[in-house]
Structures are given as C-alpha cells and as structure tokens.
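Section handout 9: paired folding examples.
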Amino acid sequence: MTEILSGHWRRMAAIGMASAALLAGCGSSNDDDASPPPPIATPAPAPAPVPASSNLKAAADVGPPLSSVDLDAVVSATTAAGFAGAARCDVQMVDVTYTTRAPDGVTPVDASGVVMLPIGAACPGPFPLVAYSRGTDLDKARTLAEPGDEEAQLVAAMVAAQGFVVAATDYLGYGRSTWPEHPYLHADSQASANVDAMRAARALAAQRGIVLDGKVFVTGYSQGGHASMATQKAIETSLAGEFALAGAAHMSGPYDLVGTVRDALAKLPVGDLGSTYYLPFAVTSLQKVYKDLYTTPGQFFKSPYDAAIEKLFPGPSDVSLQDLIVQDKMPLLLSSLVTADFIKAAIDPASALYRALSSNSPTGFAPKAKTLLCGGSRDPVVTFSNAEQAAAAFQGAGSAAVSLYDVEDEPAYAPLLRDDLVPVDIHAGYHASQVPPLCLLQVRNLFLTL
C-alpha cells in the first residue's frame, strides 16, 4: 500500500493516530514509506519588485523548477500512481507575501502562500488559474512555499503540471501572516485569503509575462474543502464580475459544521477520530471572532484543559498532539473535554455556538459553475455525510451543477483504501493520505474538461 506519510500528510495522520494508537493499543504505520523526494533547495533570490497598485508584496522562487520527471515521481508515491498519467509541464514554485483582510473584513493584514507556475516548451499558455486550499495543520510556522512540502508538491504534480497556475494560501495566522491567530473554519476570512491569493497570482503572472486565460477554478482538501466552498460562494454571490468561475471541486470537507459537531457528540465518549483537536480548535477560533460563544473557556471545556485551550492551536512546530496529551493539555476522549453546557449549546438553534457553526457552513447558495464533491464514504475523520448533505442542499436550492463522487465506488481503488491491520474507525491514513490523491485526480480531470 503506497502512501504519502511525510511532511504535512504525516502530521495529519499523526494527529489521528496519536489518539487512535493509545485508544486501540495499536502502533502507527511506518512513517518512512514511499516519501517523494524533496526538490534541491537553493538560496531564494531577492524579492522581485511589484507594482504599487498590486496586493502582491513580495515574490521569490522556491529553489529551481520541479521537472516533470520530479513531479511524476511525486505521484508515483501516492494512491494515484498508475492512474494520473504523465506531467506535461515543469513547475516553478514561487513564495509570495500578499495583503488580505482580517476576520473583520476591513483591517489589512499580510498572508503568505505559494504560486505554482507551469513552465517549459510543452506549456506555452495561456493558463487558467486555480485557488487551492490546504488541509488542517497545527504547526503555526508552516508554509506551502517550504521546499519539500508534500501537499504542495502533490498539487504541483497533479494540477500545475497539467497547465494550471495555482495560488495556494497559507491562511491567516500561518507562515508569515501578520495576523496573530488562525480563524479556523471561519468561512469569510478563508474565502478572502483565497480571493486575495488569486489577485496576487494574477499580479505575479503579469510581472513575469505569463498569460492567464481568464478562467478560474477553486478546490481544496479537508479544511481546504470547506475553504474552497466558501470561496466559490463568495465569488458566485459577490465577485462574479471579477472572476469567471469555470468550475469548483471540494474534497472531504466539513461543510456542515453543525452536523459535524453533532456527529462527534453522538459518538461519545470517544467522538470522531481527531475531534479532540478539531472541535476545540474550531470553537475557540470562532469565539475569538464573535466573542459571544461562551463566557469563559470553562463553560465549554472541562478542567484542567480549559486553562490553556485557547492558546493551543495552532502552535509551535516542535509540539505534537501527542505531546499535548502527555502534558495533560488535551485528553484522549472527547467526553473528558466537553461540558454538558457545550453539548446543550451545540444542539440548541438559539445558542450563539449553534449560530456561529451554522453561519460558517458555506452551503447556503445554489452553485452555478460545475461543482464536484469528492470524498470517501469510510472516512473516520470527516464523514462523507458532509458531501451528501451539501449536495442535497445545493440541489434543493435549485442547482443542477453539482455531482458527488465517492472513491469507494471505483473498484480499481479498493486495494488502495484498505489496511487490514487498522480498523477503519481509527485509520487516520484513510483521510490523511489515501483519499487526497484519488480525489485530486478527479478534480484535475474535471478541470481539464472545463
């Protein structure tokens, strides 16, 4: 079984496995399996000058271009090996800093990210532009512009190498962002970070003489699926005059936040795999935005965890979820974390918590552009019911542009999605490393047809 389990994908798997291993008494898988080779790191050139009118503040190449051979090697180390075909283009990764807005929608702040530029004789352009949103990460310093970042390399190999310029934000609160906190699953600020990343990518393309064809696509995985859906909603309801959205594809995202929390609580005492970190991460983040979800952390979170919980996520790169559990800053069981007041508020439509979760579930529109919802129906981290309910909501709103894809429905994928040594309900690698390449393949194929 081939998996990406290094860099970001390894951290995603480790988040779930730290709890799963302790709960089930099983060890984690070998983290050294089939890691794609990192590119050769070279000193970055000085930031290029940018026009005063642009929101692009700085741009510098991340090492030399990734060759099509390098990118094929990345794909060959994933579940998409043998299905994706060969890369057409080399890809130059560009580290960018750009201006966006704080969660209040007004205050200007800096964010960082990466722009992926297809290059080479086989790829003369003009190119469509894709906004990619990454998955959850607990490492505050992480940037997709880091040499060797596996998620960035996979997107470069699967999307940019087929002739798409890709703009991928690090979000507020990560990388070089000047905003001190990450508003996790806050739909509006995730959308504005993406929209402004696309504006920065357009400025970078103009600066380098790269021609864009005007078509725009949005996609993302896990948290990024939630962010990309929020971005599609923002474009189609407010920014259609600026961006010609040709297609959207959202992968394994928690689109229904009310339902996601409710489902985790239905599985007490354990909760969903990973819910002891993503649930407090979301709730404390939304509290910092709205300031009225609870009066003190102790109202929603049990002692001793309430004392530090607002400062845990995201955190230093050298502090893992397992470290937090050992230090008794996080529990193994969700029932050891949440209070009766939290459970009551999560299911009460009149509560501020319920309203915050509902208002940040970005399903309240009827997609116009062709839209794909991809995931795996055995996912123990983000349940596939999120995609099913989003599709039903869109169709109920009158949209005929939405399709649903379950990787479990493809017989050829079956051997890639099983691990006989790990029960599926604690198999973190399913969400973290096995499904992403297979869904990204469906996304790439849809975008190519459009």
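Moving on to protein 2 of 2.
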Amino acid sequence: MSKILVSRAFPLCFGLCAAAAVHAQGTPTAPAPTAPATAPAQQPSAPDPALAALSSVQTFYEQTRDVSAEFFQTYVNKLYDRTDKSRGHVVFKKPGKMRWDYAKPNGKVIVASSGKLLVYEPGEEPGDKGQVLEQSFAQADLPQAMSFLLGTGKLADDFDAKLLDAAREGFANGQVLELRPKKPNPHFDRLLFFVESSAALRGLVRRIVIVDASGNRNRFDFSAFKFNSGTPESTFEWRPPADARKVHL
C-alpha cells in the first residue's frame, strides 16, 4: 500500500500602401488610408495530456476517504542482481494513515499514524522477536510516493509529469505516467504510475514503480480494491511485540 511544451506561431500581417498619385499641377495627394489588418482569433492551447492524466489520478482519490487493496511487491536490486517478491494487504486512510501487512513468511508490518512510521521486521531465528524501526513520517520514502492515497499533497505541486509509451511498458489499455520530484528526493529518482483510462475507472492507479538513483526498482501491483469502507481508527493503532528491538532513525 507518475512536459509538453506547446508552441504557437502567430502570423504577422503587413499592410502595403500604394504610392501617392501626383497631379499635373498642385501638391501631392496623401495615399488613401488602408483598413487595419485584423489578427486571426487566438486558438486555445490543447491541454497537456500528462497533466490531464495526473489530474485524473488526483480527482479519483480525492473522492475517497479510505482505500484498501491486495498488493504484490517486486523489488529488483540492480547492484546485486537480486529480485525479492512478497504480497499482502494494504489500507490507506485520510489524512496520513496507512498500514501494510505482509503475508508469511515475510510477516512485516508497516504502520503510519500521528506523524510516525513504524516498520516491524520479524526475527529470522527461533526466539528472535525481531525489530521495530521508528522514524518521522515525513522522512520516509513511501509517504511522498503514496501522497495521493494519503490525502497529504497535490501531485502537480510535487512532481513534473510526462506520459510514456503505455504499450512498450506493458499497459496498453491504460496510461503510464512518469513523475519526477520537483525537489531532489534522497529516496527515489522517479515514479511510474500505471493509470486506468476507461470512463468508469479513470484515474485508478493499478501499479506503482519506485525507481531510485541506482536503478533499483520497487514495484507494487494492486488488486481487489475497496473504497470508502469505513476503516476503523483502531486499524492504525497496531503495537509491535513488547520485546522486539527498537531502532530510532
């Protein structure tokens, strides 16, 4: 639990005045005045398709109070040529709450609430209760990437957007937005949003890919969506095992 420069050419109109006729006797007559040229009506610029797609995402999720889904995560570490896969259930609720429950054997739990992010990682050895990492919500990488789900920001304010070739990205029936943060972000270099473009689901994000500066890719595929189901506040009051090691970042 993602710039099109539009240019317009304006034609220039020039009026040509004929030379004045000179009478055989008397002073020269002034040239007859010409009617002023009329500039063509300015046509409205075409909307930026990337910004239109980004707006559809913002609009879709502004209509939701909470959203839950099943997720399948694929993390590709480019340096070590390693791929890790996991799955689970995620819930988002405005403002600024989320919870990720990873299915076993992973068992990780991520909870964001009250400005804090808790990440619980179970121990790998028998008797090991694991550890809990706590950090400020604003300093984590997921919140900005998922801000449209959390109701904590405006995508157009935080990102520059462009559309990629959806067919080439394997999402021919929708749109693929590439988003780059307007301010440098230490956690990721760009985001890819795979967005529904059908009339009924326009703006729904089916997949998010987070790409960091090293080329590592963290991909989330979402399914089985539920919207505005009244997720209780207690969902985000989860507490880790009391004897788990605590790490503050």
